[in-house]
User: Fold these one by one.
Assistant:
Number 1:
Amino acid sequence: MSDSPVQAARALRAGGLVILPTETVYGLAADAADAVAVAAIFEAKGRPRFNPLIAHAPDLDAARRIAVLDARAIALAEAFWPGPLTLVAPVRDPAAVCDLARAGLDTVAVRVPAHPLALEVLRLFGGPVVAPSANRSGRPSPTRFADAVEETGAFAAAAVDGGPCAVGVESSVVAVLDGPPRLLRAGGATRAEIEAVVGPLAQADDDARRSPGRLALHYAPDAPVRLEAAAPRPGEAFLAFGPSPVETAFNLSPAGDLREAAANLFAFLRAADRTRPTGIAVAPIPPEGLGEAINDRLRRAAGFVG
Ligand code: TXA
Ligand code: MG
């Protein structure tokens, strides 16, 4: 059974997940501004990590309201959109694509998909929609409606049948930040096609040599992060989970709900960091379900994983 674009847009507005056809692969979509809905995507995929997601927009103007696109990015957008190219650029409106969807980064990935039903859902919905591939983590991306429904249909409030995906591999991801544009993921648009528009792409290894750490994809606060803390030490900000032993402005979920904690994680790390504490102490987070991804990101923030 397939839902209409109107039903899909309504489901997105209600905070639900939607199986969305694109020309590359089927996506599992949510309102990019709704951190709880985005947390539900990670839960549905069973992802042990929070990777930053791609925001989908119906046209270039809408994409420019999400990301700061320079002349090179606009040349790429004009050449490939709608189509299988994703641009990573500085985020313009951090509220339009929540911290969790960006994994706390100051950049955002954006693309205009070339599928009439996806474009209709995006126009009807009116805001950015994030959508990773609709498979469970570690499984192949679905390129047929039935496969998408089999993978994550149980978590979707609506599912739109757009037929088989014409491209069948994910979009190519190109970062257009400072320095030459860089291919972060090979996909539906080839390197040669991309280079024909913007000239030679930076080699990932060159880049790593010149500025180690530039490829790191995770947000790390300035303050040192201390995990599994029962309580804060003097000068530390405290990210609590569940009942807190002290007053704190940063309780990830007073009720101990992992989806709520995931939704708050990056925004609270940033907010805590902005108070210029001597450190950020984080209460223990249970390792089950979304807790695995939360703990993975916390370990990265604490510098334990590269
Ligand atoms: O074809 C596609 O792109 C599909 C369809 C559904 O649109 N979507 C998709 O999303 O493949 P996902 O979440 O599986 O892949 C997102 C990719 C990842 O490689 C991620 O690391 C990268 O985009 N990405 C997203 N935001 C980024 C950022 N701010 N900086 C660097 N890479 C980013
Ligand atoms: Mg994927």
Number 2:
Amino acid sequence: MSTPKPIYGPADSMQTPRFSGIRTYARLPHVTDDLEHADAAIVGIPFDTGGTFRVGARFGPEAIRSASALMRPYHGASGVPVFELLSVIDYGDLPIIPGYFEESAERITAGLTTLHAAGVVPIALGGDHSIALPELRAAAAVHGPVGLIQLDSHSDTSDAYFGRPYTHGTPFFHATNEGLLDVQRVIQVGLRGPIYSGRDYEIPREFGFEVLTAGEVHELGMPEVAKRILERVAGGPVFFSFDIDFVDPAYAPATGTPEIGGFTTWEVQNLVRRLVGLPYVGFDVVEVIPEYDVAQNTALVAANVAYEFLTLLARSRQSAP
Ligand code: MN
Ligand code: MN
């Protein structure tokens, strides 16, 4: 079959330089009123008062969009003309209320449900990781319980912090209890750092998740880790959540709760590029706090992670019968 030509794509950087114009992700058009002609949408979710340590991820979407001006239309490593295969829009930011998780979550869920229902795959730019709960509520409302690939230093499966249920340390506890996850198809990868107790790693395993610590990932190497992930999440819709603290703070210092002993930017690319062929229904990259950044490094990593996500979508479209 021949794929119809995408309606929406980036501005041509051979006509106007990429540092010019109003910043959207990768110079894509800002579109909110036409979901029919879009395959994927970049969505900013600038909610950051779920953070328990550093805050400021409310400026994450803006910083990631700014760094994304460097994204080019062709994924050189895999030979994929990303924007010839996919029609992509920048949907702007969802309207959150700083300090009010539950009200913000309702708005995030509503906004993303609209995209899912229209068959548009959201790629969310956080925001702190608390936004994963409303993201999963929206994904599950349309697709049913989803499998999850979570790349993160932390499990984020505590039941509460400070006696309060909704923080960036708790989204996957609540998502499990709300039945949003197909727990047999959940894998958390990259966990490391000082923890509160051994329970931190027991809880996700009791939920039925597979957990690979950072030490295990370093020992196994990315090709084997990718194999484990692909085996684990196969068989249904998949949500891919990328906490930027998966990356070593040497490469991504600007984040809420940095942990040493992480992964290089090449290891990130090497892993994510192998996770091809899955029926992805949503993505996010979260926990970028530009105030702590150095030379835009962290924002650039996040912009490239979102670009790898787009490439995964484009490659599944390319290989579609
Ligand atoms: Mn997290
Ligand atoms: Mn984390």
